[in-house]
């Protein structure tokens, strides 16, 4: 096997210091075998150069807060969670117990954290979308470095405020654009920049949300109302706008978008349906979005319920949750307004084009990518991609292996979650934002693309992008 040094490869491909990640052994591959296959294997996150962990306070102990915090459980020599702010008591208790957080560093809300003098190196902000801006601004004012869950903030002005204050204070702000750290997208970036497909012409990219995920998160769940959180193009797909900007390597000049809420609305409610799936709905057994089916019978996505310790009570607990929370409501009778299909077309500098499609109604998930160049193309789905050379007509299949190798198996988003945390820790330790692949500058740029996409969708106009 021939190793691909991730840091050297990306540096040599001319991405600049702002895009040099630090997992130097994270990708390996064999020599190219035409009409054959290769494997990209994710490596480990061990770093013997770290002599002392960074200390961190987590604001928001939900799913994402636990994902990033769990890195400290696996690698306590690198990351030490010493504080938490979480208003849901059972989450606060469990997070504190997991990380051995003393009572004095347990807080109900993020505001309480900043009433104390600075007592850690950094904060992880994994609060709800509409609670990113205020704690981020306060953390910057107090001198904390930050790992900020996407989206940065609900408005363009707030995003720019955070960028400006980060520059003024000189603090590290890493936005969780985790796809940049996934081996699949890293290798695609290498292939494009190495000239393997000639000159880049166009990209088609799709995010299949998967129908149950859509109903769970964006119809019943926390992100069902764009006015209370953020538009779905940012809440769900700012990852994808960011990865397109990164792969292409040039600014986006203009954007146009189309999409609507077509299916999950009252006019499509089946005859005999009730306000809740537990209310004796006549069509419950024939509905793919039945809350009883999803959460009770199949036990999908039940992590949102904060189960009691006694497992024998879990079945009754789920039913009670379905009777009292939005997760038990009919998908056709919610106050949701998020589009369930969304298509965005973009023009980048040097006449490179990209199409992005966010689709709710799929039986599968995982991004799909088609990259077209003057001398070859690439077709991939995050598990593998196939490169075809136009001149030789030979193909190379690359397999992505993250499940059984190294520590990526504990990380989501194709291995990107923990790879981001790894790089963020290095940046904080060395106080050098250039050690991040995804800097706050780049993150704000792709967010502006999202805001302009939403403007285009609503106004039915092509919208120019102004990054100044």
From TrEMBL:
<dbReference type="InterPro" id="IPR004104">
    <property type="entry name" value="Gfo/Idh/MocA-like_OxRdtase_C"/>
</dbReference>
<dbReference type="InterPro" id="IPR036291">
    <property type="entry name" value="NAD(P)-bd_dom_sf"/>
</dbReference>
<dbReference type="InterPro" id="IPR051450">
    <property type="entry name" value="Gfo/Idh/MocA_Oxidoreductases"/>
</dbReference>
<dbReference type="Pfam" id="PF01408">
    <property type="entry name" value="GFO_IDH_MocA"/>
</dbReference>
<feature type="domain" description="Gfo/Idh/MocA-like oxidoreductase C-terminal">
    <location>
        <begin position="189"/>
        <end position="463"/>
    </location>
</feature>
<dbReference type="GO" id="GO:0000166">
    <property type="term" value="F:nucleotide binding"/>
</dbReference>
<dbReference type="InterPro" id="IPR000683">
    <property type="entry name" value="Gfo/Idh/MocA-like_OxRdtase_N"/>
</dbReference>
<protein>
    <submittedName>
        <fullName>Gfo/Idh/MocA family oxidoreductase</fullName>
    </submittedName>
</protein>
<feature type="domain" description="Gfo/Idh/MocA-like oxidoreductase N-terminal">
    <location>
        <begin position="56"/>
        <end position="176"/>
    </location>
</feature>
<dbReference type="Pfam" id="PF02894">
    <property type="entry name" value="GFO_IDH_MocA_C"/>
</dbReference>
């Amino acid at each position: 096997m021939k190793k691909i040094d991730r840091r050297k490869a990306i540096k040599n491909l001319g991405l600049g210091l702002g895009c040099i990640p630090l997992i130097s052994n994270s990708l390996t591959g064999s020599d190219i075998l035409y009409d054959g296959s290769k494997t990209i294997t994710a490596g480990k996150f061990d770093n013997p150069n770290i002599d002392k962990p960074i200390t961190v306070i987590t604001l928001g102990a939900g799913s994402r807060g636990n994902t990033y915090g769990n890195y400290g459980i696996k690698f306590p020599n690198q990351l030490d969670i010493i504080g938490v702010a979480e208003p849901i008591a059972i989450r606060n208790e469990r997070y504190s117990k997991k990380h051995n957080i003393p009572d004095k560093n347990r807080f109900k809300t993020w505001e309480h954290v900043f009433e104390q003098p600075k007592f850690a190196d950094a904060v992880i902000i994994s609060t709800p979308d509409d609670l990113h801006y205020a704690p981020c601004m306060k953390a910057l004012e107090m001198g904390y470095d930050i790992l900020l869950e996407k989206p940065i903030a609900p408005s363009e002005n707030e995003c720019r405020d955070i960028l400006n204050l980060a520059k003024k204070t000189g603090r590290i702000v890493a936005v969780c654009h985790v796809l940049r750290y996934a081996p699949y997208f890293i290798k695609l970036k290498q292939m494009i920049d190495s000239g393997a497909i000639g000159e880049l012409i166009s990209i088609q990219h799709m995010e299949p949300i998967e129908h149950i995920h859509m109903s769970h998160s964006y119809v019943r769940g926390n992100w069902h109302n764009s006015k209370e959180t953020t538009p779905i193009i940012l809440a769900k797909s700012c990852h994808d706008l960011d990865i397109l900007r990164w792969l292409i390597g040039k600014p986006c000049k203009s954007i146009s978008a189309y999409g609507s809420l077509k299916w999950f609305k009252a006019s499509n409610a089946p005859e005999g349906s009730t306000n809740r799936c537990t209310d004796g709905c006549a069509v419950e057994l024939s509905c793919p979005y039945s809350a009883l089916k999803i959460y009770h019978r199949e036990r999908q996505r039940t992590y949102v319920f904060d189960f009691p310790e006694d497992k024998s009570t879990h079945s009754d607990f789920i039913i009670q949750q379905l009777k009292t929370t939005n997760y038990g409501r009919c998908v056709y009778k919610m106050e949701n307004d998020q589009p369930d299909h969304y298509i965005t077309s973009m023009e980048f500098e040097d006449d490179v084009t990209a199409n992005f499609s966010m689709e709710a109604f799929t039986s599968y998930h995982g991004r799909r990518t088609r990259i077209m160049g003057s001398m070859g193309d690439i077709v991939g789905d995050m598990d593998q991609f196939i490169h075809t050379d136009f001149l030789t007509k030979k193909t190379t299949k690359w397999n992505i292996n993250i499940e059984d190798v190294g520590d990526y198996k504990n990380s989501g988003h194709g291995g990107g979650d923990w790879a981001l945390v790894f790089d963020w820790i290095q940046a904080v330790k060395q106080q050098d934002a250039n050690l991040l692949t995804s800097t706050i500058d780049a993150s704000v740029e792709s967010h502006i693309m999202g805001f302009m996409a939403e403007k285009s969708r609503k106004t039915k106009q092509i919208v120019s992008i102004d990054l100044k």
